[in-house]
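Sample intake sheet
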Amino acid sequence: MRSLNIAATGMLAQQTNVEVISNNIANMNTTAYTKRRPEFSDLLYQNLRRVGAASSDAGTIVPTGVQLGLGVKTTAVYRITEQGSVQSTDNTLDVAIQGKGYFRIQLPSGETAYTRDGSFQLSDQGQIVTHEGYQVLPGITVPSDATGVTVNASGQVLIKKDGSTDQAVAGQLNLAIFANEAGLEARGDNLFMETPASGAAITANPGTAGYGTLLQGYLETSNVNVVAEVTNLISAQRAYEMNSKVIQTSDEMLSTINQLK
C-alpha cells in the first residue's frame, strides 16, 4: 500500500522539523543566533488517469484526472535573518550591529569568515579578536598603555592614553553585506562562510547607505521567539502522531486482507 511509504515520508519530515525547532530552542541564548525554518514540498505524483486525456472519440477530455501523491520531502532549512534585540553588557569590547552587516574574521586557515557576534576581546598582542582568538579584520591593535577604548557608530576604534585628553584612531572596523544572507554557510562558533548562493561580500564602513551602525557595550541577542517555537513543536508532534496513525491504519487494513486469503 502506498499509504505506508507516504506516511513514512511524513514522519521523516516532521522529525526534521522537530530537529530544527530543537536547535532554535537550544540556541535561544546564543549571541546573534538567527532562527531556522524548515521548508517542505510534495513529491512526484503518479498519474492513474492523466488530466486532459481524451475520454471519447467525440473529443471530450477528462476534466480532473487521477493523480496520487507520493509524500513529502524537506527542500530547505531557511535562515531568518531579521534583527535580534540588543542587550547592554557594559563591556568595552562588546559591539552590536544595528542593521545589516557582518564583521569579517580571519580564520587560522587564512580564509575569511563572517559573524554578527561582536563579543570581542584582546589577544596577548593587543589585537582585537573573537572568543576563539581569531583576528577581527582589518586587524586593529590596542596599545598596552591605552587607558580607554571607544568604538563609535561608524566603526572607528579610538584610544585614550594617560596625560592626554585627545583620542587617537587605532583603526577602522568595517562590515560586509551579501545579496542573499540566507545563502551563507554556517560553520559553528557563530561564524558563516561565503558561498556561490550568498554572492560575494561587499565591504564598507558602518553607517554607509545600506549598512548598519555599531553600538558599543551591547550585544545582539538571538531572534528566537520561544512561544512560537513551542507552538511549532506541538504542531510538529501532532503531525508526526497523525502520520504514525496512518501507518497503523494501513497495517490493520493489510492484516484484514491477509485474513481474507
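Comment: The mean pLDDT is 90. The first strand starts at residue 36 and ends at 42.
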